[in-house]
């Protein structure tokens, strides 16, 4: 999706961003994530993001395995910042919005702030390739990806828009399938932190193959 802002490199993004911890949520550069915002602290986060003009929200997963306080869980060290590219008011106090991924980031430190939502100092310079659209997509094994997708759809009795898939560039295809995949936080985090698009596709293929093998062994053909 085209966006009004052009981010040509890490230096064009702020060092401090609001973060939205959400288990199982995977946002990737140039991917689109719909969000239904209803908690007061995150409504305030959206308002502040719009007021400040940057329209940016960092999506990150809580690291529940290393959390001592469930009300304020630890965070994984890598997330992805997205720009608010669509926003609608529901009429009952909610925001329905869409984020378009810009770049992954590493958390440098979580800040002590007065806002109810959390904020982090982040580093984008480890992910300079995220600012280059379709970087490395020629290295993706598209045939293997489509084969495992076909097997997954058959096993779960699902249908898909094959015309749209066949016309999608490799970057859009890999990232969309990764974001929509039904896997857990650990698998989503592995795909987020993948060194390049080829590696992300390989992780997605491997995870899907393991899931299919498990279902065949158990005789279960439905989604968990």
TrEMBL record:
PROSITE patterns: LON_N (PS51787). SUPFAM superfamilies: PUA domain-like (SSF88697). Residues 17-212 form the Lon N-terminal domain. InterPro entries: Lon_prtase_N (IPR003111), Lon_prtase_N_sf (IPR046336), PUA-like_sf (IPR015947). SMART domains: LON. PANTHER family: ATP-DEPENDENT PROTEASE LA (LON) DOMAIN PROTEIN (PTHR46732:SF8). This is Lon N-terminal domain-containing protein.
């Amino acid at each position: 999706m085209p966006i009004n802002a052009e981010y040509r490199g890490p230096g064009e993004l702020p060092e401090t961003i609001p973060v939205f911890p959400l288990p199982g949520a995977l946002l990737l550069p140039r991917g689109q994530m719909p969000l239904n915002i209803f908690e007061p602290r995150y409504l305030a986060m959206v308002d502040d993001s719009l007021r400040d003009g940057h329209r940016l929200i960092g999506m990150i997963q809580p690291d529940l395995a290393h959390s001592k306080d469930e009300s304020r869980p630890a965070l994984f060290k890598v997330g992805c910042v997205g720009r608010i590219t669509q926003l609608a008011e529901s009429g009952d106090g909610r925001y329905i919005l869409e984020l378009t991924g810009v770049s992954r980031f590493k958390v440098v430190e979580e800040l002590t702030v007065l806002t109810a939502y959390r904020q982090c100092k982040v580093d984008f310079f480890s992910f300079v390739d995220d600012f280059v659209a379709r970087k490395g997509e020629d290295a993706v094994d598209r045939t293997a990806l489509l084969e495992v997708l076909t097997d997954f759809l058959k096993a779960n009795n699902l249908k898909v828009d094959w015309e749209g898939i066949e016309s999608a560039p490799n970057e859009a295809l890999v990232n969309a399938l990764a974001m929509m995949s039904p896997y857990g936080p650990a698998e989503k985090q592995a795909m987020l932190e993948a060194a390049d698009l080829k590696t992300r596709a390989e992780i997605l293929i491997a995870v899907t193959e393991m899931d299919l093998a498990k279902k065949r062994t158990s005789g279960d053909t439905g989604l968990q």
